[in-house]
Amino acid sequence: MAPTHLAQVAIAVEDLDRARAFYRDTLGLPHLFDAPPGLAFFRCGETRLMLSRPEGAETAGNSILYYGVADVAAAYEEIRGKGVAFDEPPRRIAEVDGKPIHLAICRDSEGNLLGLIDG
Fold first, then answer.
1. Does the first or last residue of the chain, that is N or C, have fewer Cβ atoms within 10 Å of its Cβ?
2. For residue 74, what is the enclosing H or E element?
3. 16: closest CA among 35, 37, 40?
4. Is residue 119 very low, low, confident or very high in pLDDT (cuts 50, 70, 90)?
5. pLDDT tens digit string along 26-66?
């Protein structure tokens, strides 16, 4: 059987409390629950986002997730207004089926790259 969707993504973070606040308060993802030892779970559409401390060779800053938003420019202004600096402001990156696709790149509280994309 082929997978039907991405069920869960794990992001390694150095400071779980700081990362939990970023994803909950800055990005506005619904916090689902915390689980020992040091895990926090959020809802992002059909996908669960799991924040956890690095284990073994894993380090923070090793993943890039692209979050779908209705309007990249509006999301950029809202998140930038909460003090987040962007590596790349919104820009048009492509056109798919006649619809422009825009992308902005910032970092979460732990240094992980984070993309905001529409289309």
1. N
2. helix 72-80
3. 40
4. low
5. 999 999 999 988 899 999 999 999 999 876 655 555 567 88
Residue 75: its H or E element: helix 72-80
* Integer angstrom CA distances of residue 87 from 21, 72, 84, 90, 111: 21, 14, 10, 10, 11
Residue 89 has pLDDT above 90, yes or no: yes
What sign has the CA pseudo-torsion 14, 16, 21, 24?
A: positive
Tell me, what amino acid is at 8?
Q
| Contact predicate 57/66, CB 8 Å | no
Give DSSP secondary structure letters for 4-40: -S--EEEEE-S-HHHHHHIIIIIS-PPEEEEETTTEE
Round to whole Å and give the CA distance between 106 and 119.
Answer: 18
